[in-house]
Amino acid sequence: MAFPYLEAVLGFMIFMYLFETYLDIRQHAALKLPNLPKPLEGVISREKFEKARAYSIDKSYFHFIHEAVTILMDTAILYFGLLPWFWKLSGNLVAYLGLDAENEIIHTLSFLAGVMIWSQITDLPFSLYSTFVIEARHGFNKQTIWLFFRDMFKGICLSILLGPPIVSAIIFIVQKGGPYLAIYLWAFMFVLSLVMMTLYPILIAPLFNKFTPLPDGELRKKIEKLAASLKFPLKKLFVVDGSTRSSHSNCKNEEEVVAVIAHELGHWKLNHTMYSFIAIQILTFLQFGGYTLVRNSKDLFESFGFDSQPILIGLIIFQHTVIPLQHLVNFGLNLVSRAFEFQADAFAKKLGYAKALRAGLIKLQEENLSAMNTDPWYSAYHYSHPPLVERLSAIEEADSKKEN
Questions:
Q1: Which of 13, 31, 44, 255 pairs with 37 at a CA distance of 20 to 30 A?
Q2: Is 341 a catalytic residue?
C-alpha cells in the first residue's frame, strides 16, 4: 500500500497552523498588556507605548485573518487536486496557442504564469488593507495608490524577466544531471546567489528606492574611521531614501548611526555573514539531495493527483513533504541568529559604543512602534533578533560586570 503523502502533508500543515495560532494568541495577549516591561519603564514614553500597543494589536488581528484565509486556500488547493487540474489546464493553453505542449519548459512557464496571476489576485486585498488601512491609520504609509501599483508592476516585470531563464535552467539541469544532479543544482544556485547579490544593489534595489552618496562630513568621517580600524574594505557609502513609501524611521544621531554600523561590522568581523552563507549552502545542497531521492517516486506524484512527473511539480511536492524538517531548521537558524545578534552587540560595546547603541535601539523601537511586550514562546519560535528588553539587558549586564 502506497504511503499517504498528501494526507500526511495536509495533516502537518493543519497541525502547524494550530500550533502557530496558539503562539499568536499568546503573543496577542502579551501585546494587550497595559504596562511596559519593567526594564523599559522610564525609558519608553507612555505615549509611544500606547501607540505601539495599538499598532501591534491592529497588525495582530490582521495576521489572524490572513493566516486563516491562507491555510484554507492552501488546504483546498491540495485536497481538491487543483494543482494537477491547473497543470493540465496550462498544458491545454500551450497547445491552444500553437506551441509545443510536450516541451516541459514551455508547459512549466505557462503553469507559473497562471500561478503568478493567482497569487497577485489573492494577495492584493491583504496588501492594500495592510498598506492603506493599517499603516495609514498609524501614520506610516506615504504611498499613493499609483506608487503602490507601480511597484507591483515593477515586481511583476522583474519576475517575467528573471523567472523564465532561471526555471528553464533548473529544468534543463534536472533533465541532463544524471547521478551528479544534486551537485549541479547546488552549483547553479550558488552561482545564481552570487550574481544576484552583485546585481541587486546595482540594478534592482534602485528601482524601488533612491540611493544617494553619503555627503562629506563628520558622519562619513566617523564611518570611514571605524571601517579602517577594523580593516573593512569600504568602497562606497549610500543613503537609502524610502520615505516616499513609508515613514518607518531609521532616524538617529550620528553617534547612534555609527554604533549600529559597528554592530553590523561586528557580524562581518565575527564571520557571521560567512557562517550564515555556508549554512544556507549546506542546507540547499541537502535539499537538492533529498529531491533527487524522491523525484522519480510514482507514488509521491500519484498521491497529489498527478499521472505524470513534471520537474517543477516534483520540486513543489518535495518542499511540501519536508515542511516538518524546514520548521525545525528555521527554528535552529533563529536560535543561531539571535546568538549572533548578542555577539554583534557585544562587539559594538567593546568598541565603546554601548551607550549610543542602546540609545539607537530604543529610538528604533519607539519610532517604528515595535511591540514592547513579547511572549517568550512566540519570540523563541519566530524571532531572528532578540526582543529589545533582552538586548538592553545583555548590554547592561556586560557593563555592570565590567564595572565590578
A1: 255
A2: no
